[in-house]
Specification:
The chain is an alpha/beta fold and about 300 residues long. It contains 9 helices and 9 strands. A 5-stranded antiparallel sheet has the order 1-2-7-8-9, with helices on one face. A two-stranded parallel sheet has the order 3-4. Strands 5-6 form a two-stranded parallel sheet. It starts with a helix and ends with a strand.
């Protein structure tokens, strides 16, 4: 009996030792895994910070170069706006491309300096946009939402929730209870407000980069003429109104109507930086800057 008890005791001790050993191995493995994850995260963060710093330096240099750009127009056909590779040392190879903006209806420049009177050269374009979106009920409601005064327009409305200022982001339009993400951003089958409007504009629309659906609602233009302009600019940069006169069907009347809204240069630009070689913390960037003031106005890390 004593022998059996001793045998069981030794067995119990052996099992306990084995369990303790398994526990120690498990703890050691977990600690090693945790340590590796911490090192990996620290390395990723270090690379991410290095990427961010390098991207900021690159952006500053691009802004300086753009400021000194001798061209009086901004077209995707210029070498400035073609993709280029940037060797970032240990951070890998980056693909960088600059895009001229000022390409849509300027949400921050809808009104005259009084902040309430809609610019006359934008009146028909603004109304036609809502017609294209099949949302004419927003035509004056959005103007009341954005203008500085609190007097309702005919067909509009003033509410305590209205911001009555220039928007900081286009998403602020969602404050309107009638606005939906589908109306604002569109769907795969239908354009939205964001396809027609932009925050990044000095007040005029660069015909070198404006989408066809925006050009077709500009004063003096229609869909066929917008498509002709698009066909021309794919082969030739638009440097001024003289180039528009080369396009069949473009009339002096169209030129006069466009005078207050069309342009051929941009004030705002977007820089896309894509990291090709991910070294454990590679980050891509989307940067919008103001060429005139040499100032970054939006910074996104993807």
């Amino acid at each position: 009996m004593l022998s059996v008890f001793r045998c069981r005791r030794r067995g119990f001790i052996l099992v306990a030792v084995l369990m303790l050993g398994v526990m120690l191995v498990t703890c050691a493995t977990a600690f090693a895994w945790f340590a590796r994850m911490q090192i990996k995260n620290a390395t990723r963060e270090k690379i991410s910070l290095a990427n961010r710093s390098m991207a900021q330096v690159l952006t500053r240099e691009i802004m300086k170069g753009m400021k000194a750009n001798p061209f009086k127009y901004d077209s995707p056909l210029l070498d400035w706006f073609k993709p280029f590779f940037f060797p970032a040392g240990d951070l890998g190879i980056w693909v960088v491309q600059i895009f001229p903006l000022d390409d849509k209806i300027p949400l921050r420049n809808l009104f005259l300096p009084d902040g309430s009177t809609l610019r006359n050269e934008l009146r028909n374009t603004w109304e036609d946009m809502w017609g294209k979106l099949a949302r004419r009920e927003f035509t004056y409601l959005v103007l009341d939402f954005l203008d500085k005064d609190t007097r309702p327009r005919m067909g509009g409305a003033e509410r305590e929730t209205h911001i009555n200022r220039a928007p900081l982001d286009i998403s602020e339009l969602l404050i309107l209870e009638e606005m939906t993400p589908e109306i604002l951003y569109g769907t795969s089958e239908k354009l939205g407000v964001a396809d027609y409007c932009t925050l990044w504009s000095a007040g005029r629309i660069n015909l070198n980069v404006a989408p066809v659906h925006v050009m077709e609602i500009l004063p003096g233009l229609d869909r066929p003429m917008a498509e002709k302009i698009d066909g021309y600019r794919r082969q030739n940069a638009l440097t001024g109104t003289d180039d528009l006169r080369k396009i069949p069907g473009f009339t002096p009347k169209s030129q006069a109507l466009l005078a207050g809204i069309a342009d051929f240069t941009s004030r705002y630009f977007m820089i896309k930086i894509e990291v090709l070689e991910d070294s454990g913390g590679g980050t891509s960037f989307s940067v919008i800057f103001d060429k005139k003031d040499e100032m970054i106005v939006r910074w996104e890390e993807i």
